[in-house]
């Protein structure tokens, strides 16, 4: 992975977890060939480990195939919530949790 290709290493992305694609706003250009072009997604793999879905892939420079970053996305269901995480030098780090119930108990206001 290459810190010279990105503006900010592992930027905080809040709840934005990407299962595919690239965060191009953080790509400043390839440190190897010096060009700023599209980023390729390569070596995409999906795996299921203990009820957790894991998607991994590499971000490569379109021109010279230099490895920019390795991307990891996870999805799981814990109790009554869907849990998402993302960790990538280019795309950043993020976590999200969404209730699978019609009304999220965390969003309900107490009556008293």
From TrEMBL:
Lineage top rank: taxon: Eukaryota
Biological processes per GO annotation: fibroblast growth factor receptor signaling pathway; positive regulation of DNA-templated transcription
GO molecular function: zinc ion binding
Alphabetical list of Gene3D superfamilies matching this protein: Transcription activator, Churchill (2.60.40.4240)
InterPro entries according to UniProt: Churchill_sf, Transcrpt_activator_Churchill
Annotated keywords: Activator, Developmental protein, Metal-binding, Transcription, Transcription regulation, Zinc
Cited PANTHER family: PROTEIN CHURCHILL
Family: Belongs to the Churchill family.
Record protein name field: Protein Churchill
Organism: Lonchura striata (white-rumped munia)
Name of the gene this protein is made from: CHURC1
């Amino acid at each position: 992975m290459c810190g010279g290709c990105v503006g900010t290493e592992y930027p905080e992305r809040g709840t934005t977890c990407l299962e595919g694609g690239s965060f191009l706003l953080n790509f400043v250009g390839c440190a190897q060939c010096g060009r700023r072009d599209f980023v390729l997604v390569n070596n995409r793999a999906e795996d299921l480990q203990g009820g957790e879905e894991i998607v991994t892939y590499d971000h490569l420079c379109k021109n010279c195939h230099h490895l920019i970053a390795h991307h990891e996305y996870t999805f799981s269901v814990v109790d009554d919530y869907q849990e998402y995480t993302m960790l990538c030098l280019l795309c950043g780090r993020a976590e999200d949790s969404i209730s699978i119930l019609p009304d999220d108990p965390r969003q309900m206001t107490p009556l008293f």
